[in-house]
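Chapter review: from sequence to fold.
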Amino acid sequence: MKLRVSAVQYHLHTISSFEEFARQCEHYIKTAEEFGSEFVLFPEFFTTQLLSIGSEDGTSLTINELPGFTEQYKSLFIRLAGDYQMHIIGGTHVIQKEGKLYNTAHLFYPDGRIEEQAKLHMTPTETEEWNMDPGEKLRVFDTEKGRIAIITCYDIEFPEIVRMARAEGADVIFCPSCTDDRHGFHRVRFTSHARAIENQVYVVGAGTIGSLPTVDFMRANFGSAAILTPNDIPFPPGGILAEGEMNYDMIVTADLDLELLYRVRERGSVTTWRDRRTDLYPDWENKNIHF
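The C-alpha cell string follows.
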C-alpha cells in the first residue's frame, strides 16, 4: 500500500475577508492535486489568520472569537475534500464546546465525513493566555489507505501518545504544528524524528510561517514542513523523505510505502517496535485504553 502526501508551509499574513482565506487554502489544495496527492496536511492554528480580518468597527479580534468561524471553516474544507477527492487534515481550528475552548484537528474525508482530534497537552500560552482546555482521549482513524493518527505539535513531545497510536495500528502520524522560534521548531522536529524511530512509523509535519501583526501570540512564526521515516534501510539515512525550505511559502510532497514499514518492523537493522521491553514498562497493546 502506498499513499502520496503533501504538507503545507502555510503563509500567515493579514487578510480582509473569509473569501481571501478560502482562496489561499484552495491554492494549496490545487497545488497538491497537481502532484497527485491523496492526503494534505495543514498546520496548527492556521485559521488564526481569520482573526486578522478584524471586526466591523475596526477593532482586533481575539482567540475567543475564532470559534465563530467554525461553520464556514468546516463548509470550506468539506467542499475542498469532495471537489478534489482528497483526505484533508485541516490543521487545527479552535472550537467551543460547553463553554470551553479546544485546539482541535479536523480530518475531512472525500465523502463528506469529518473526524476530530483535540490537542491533549496544552502549552503555557494556550493555558494561561488563551484559557484553552486539553482533549480527553486519543483517537485513530481508518482511511482507504490505512490507519492514521493526528498528534498536534506539543503532543509529539510526549512519547507515550504516539506509542498508544501505534498500538492501535496507526502507521502514519500527521503532526500539524505552529512554532514561533527556532527552539520550538527544533523541539517538534527532533521529537518527530524520535517518534518515527521508536515506533517505526511515518511522521508528516506541517508548520506556519509569516506573521499576523494584529493577532496576539501569532506575530512570529518559524517553521517548515517535513515527511519523516524510520532511520533504516531502505529509507533515507537521515530519515527525511522530503522537507521544505525554512520559512518559505510552499508545500512538500512524498510517497509513503507502508510495506516498507512492515518489512523493517520484522527484519530491519533494528526492530524497535518488536523489541520493546514490556516486562519493564507498559505495553499499550495490553492496556484498557479509551480511544
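Two observations follow directly from the output. The chain has one domain: 2-272. The mean pLDDT is 95.
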